Each structure stands twice: as structure tokens, then as C-alpha cells.
Amino acid sequence: MALTTAQYRELDSAHFLHPFTDHRRMHKTGARIIERAEGIYLWDSDGNKLLDGMAGLWCVNVGYGRKELAEVARQQMETLPYYNTFFQTAHPPVIDLSQLLSEVTPPHLNHVFLTNSGSESNDTVVRMARYFWSCMGHPEKQVIISRRNAYHGSTVAGASLGGMAAMHAQGGLPIPDIVHIGQPYWYREGGDLSPDDFGKQVAGELEKKIEELGEHRVAAFIAEPVQGAGGVIVPPDSYWPEIKAICKRHQILLVADEVICGFGRTGEWFGSDYYDIDPDLMPIAKGLSSGYLPIGGVMVADHVVRVIIDEGGEFAHGMTYAGHPAACAVAAANIRILRDEGIIDTVRDDTGPYLQQCWRELGDHPLVGEVRGLGFLGALELVADKKTRAPFEPADQTGALCRDIAADLGLVMRAVGDSMIISPPLIMRRNQIDDLVALALKSLDDTLSALRN
Ligand SMILES: *Cc1c(COP(=O)(O)O)cnc(C)c1O
Predict the structure, then answer these.
(1) Ligand 1 contact via 224 beta carbon (within 6 Å)
(2) Which option is the CATH number for 68-340: 2.30.110.10, 2.30.30.60, 3.40.640.10, 3.30.70.120?
(3) Within 10 A of 357 (CB to CB), how many other CB atoms are there?
(4) Cα 375 to chain center, whole Å?
(5) Does pLDDT of 366 surpass 80?
(6) Which atom of ligand 1 is nearest to the CA of 153?
(7) Which CATH architecture has domain 32-65+342-452?
């Protein structure tokens, strides 16, 4: 189907309801139609080339156009396009992927429960954490503690775990027994404390919450190693050691949501490796298949698996397409690309530090209040006044303006409120990083000019 942009837009508006989209606003301008992609670049239906600073939606870690992933999918679909994994069945690709995941994830995580997305993985976390405690003889341990401004997906349980007020407002969320504490967002919430003191203080909220609820009622704490959709919020170094100690002290499961941080985003295989988190459950998705096919999962620690197998009966949970043969084959091939081509090592040792160094230079720009980042994640928080950190009023418009200006210049960045976010494909070379940062700088300059006019 090759139509003109106007024709695509007309049909799109007539028939397609987009996720996370204000349709009334979109129908005025029309959707951006992306037709093809190669490496780190996208092409839209007007032939414009865009540098994809977001790796799709934080997921195309190996970049676009890897023919061997298409080939693996094709072969698998010819051999066995579908079979389920319910009721004591399996197939070669699901076994291969499970074994490979046990190798690349932290040593004590040797089993995976597969799903089709990050949201389903977090739904699984809610059920599995509660099920684990009931197998342990503590069915009253039900409460899951999460954080404000967290993102854990868009299903009912995922959005409940998430800490987005706007999402809770739609559909009567959160569901019962999910509560939220503060986030380690030093720039906006740290007050006069040093980052490390603030990190400890905000981690301490977890202990207070556990004591307030009673340890006997708390099943788990869930957090992203680095908050992604909340604005690439990199916690102070003091934060994770404190969280880890509190979870151990109080016998609650620690869940590291690695849907963004996993598969090399931080320069290590997992954010849990970077921060030495030692999670009991570890949801994964996105970079697991580099987005080539939908797949997610939950890595489960040995001690949790043992209880579920020894004490539980049937865990009554699962999705028809979970462990889909083609998705598993593609995910396994994607992991082998990441591993055998040394892509994650390059991010850790060379391109990650280089990106961070170049990105930090944007902090001198008059619009930028704070530069954040780690590995191949970055944020620029735009402010009305650098000295006082005063945000723009009304909020969210400057970020959207800068995002649209960047897109017109050929760079995809995302706006989270007034923070500009990048999460590029991990295959970016130094000269491409130079291009990205130059385009980001020009976007900031043009945004500043637009604001002054
Ligand atoms: C994207 C994301 C999810 C949800 O994943 P979906 O595949 O969109 O359902 C969950 N957790 C985190 C941290 C995410 O970034």
C-alpha cells in the first residue's frame, strides 16, 4: 500500500485509535507516518530522514534493518509458526531463549516466565509476588510498594504499579494494595540536601512505609533502576544500596523493572548489574527482541522458583502467545548479536562515556536546568530560570515545542513534560553521536529563539 501522506493521514484519522495520543490535537496536523528504517535512521512518508534518538520506544537496541533477525523469524514461522507453552509443552526456541537468558542475566536468575510485553510482565509480577508469599504460608503479604512517577506499563496492574497521576485518574486506579512512595529525583525534590543525603532519605521512605503498613502485609517493592518514562531520572549513588538493605532487612521481594534498562542500555547487560541490585524478580521486554517482535518476561530468582515448585501447585497464569516461537527465536538471535558483536561492551567502554561527555556540554545552554544520563540514556530538563530552577509555566509546552523543532531538523527526541529525552540505538558510532548532539543543540537554540519571538 503506497499512498500519499495526505491519504495515509485521512485513513489513519478515520480508523485508527492511537495509544497515548490526544486525537483532537493530532487530527489537526495529522500523524507522522514512518515508512522504513535502517541502522539508526527513519524515513517518513514525505521522504524525510530522521535520526532516531529514541530507538523506537527505548527498544531497538541493535538498530533497524538486521536481516538475520528477519531471516530467523521467517525460518521459525516456516518450521513452527505457533505452539503454546501451557499444559506441559515446550518447543526448541523457547528452551533456547530461556537458557540464554539465564546466562546473560545476573547469576541467581535462572528461570524466565515469558509474556508478550512489559505490561504483562508487571501483571505477572503482581500475581507471582503474592503467590510466592502465599506458598510461603503468608497469604496476608499482599501489598506492593512502588514510587510516584514510576512507569510500569499500561495494563490495569501495570498502570497501578506506575506512579503516573494522569493514568490513575483514568479507570479508577490503582487497584487495591498498591501504594507509592517518593522518587529519587534530586533536581526537583532534593531541596537543600546533597544528592547522596537525598538518596538515603528518599530510600528511607520505603522503610517508613513498610513499618507503617506492617512488614507482615508487604509482598514486594518495585522500581526501575533508572526511571525511564518518568524523565530519565538517575538516582543518587546512595539510593540503591539503601533500598537493597531495606528489602533484605524486612523480607520483602525486590523487583527491578528492567524493561528499559535491560539489554545494554546502561552499558551493562542490566541496570541490576550496574547498581548491583540483586533482584528477586526482574521484568524484561523492549531490548529483549530489540522490538523486532513483541516479547517480554519476568526473570525469577532461584529461591523464588524453589518455593513455587516445591510448595505451589499450578500457577494459574499465562498468555496464549507467551513464548511465541518466532518471538523467542528473534529474541535469542538479538541477544547473540548484542553479545557476540560486543555491542554492550562498546557502550560501556567507549560510546556510552562519549555520549555522556558530549551530552553534558549541552548543560551550558541557557534553557537547560539539569543534564542527566547514564550509558545510552539522556535527559535535558528545560527551565525558565537556570539559577532558581523555576519551571516553565504553563508546563509541558516548551518540551513539546522543542520536540517538534527537533523533528523538523531531523532528530527524534521525546518530551517528558519539559525534559528532552534520548535513548538511542546502542550501535551508534562516535560520529553519529556528534550528529545527534549537534542536532539537539540546534533544537535548543531554535526553541530559545521561538520563545523569544
Ligand atoms: C515500557 C515499559 C513498560 C511497559 O512495557 P510494554 O511493552 O509497553 O507493555 C514497563 N516498564 C517499564 C520500565 C517500561 O519502560
Answers:
(1) yes
(2) 3.40.640.10
(3) 12
(4) 14
(5) yes
(6) 4
(7) Alpha-Beta Complex (3.90)
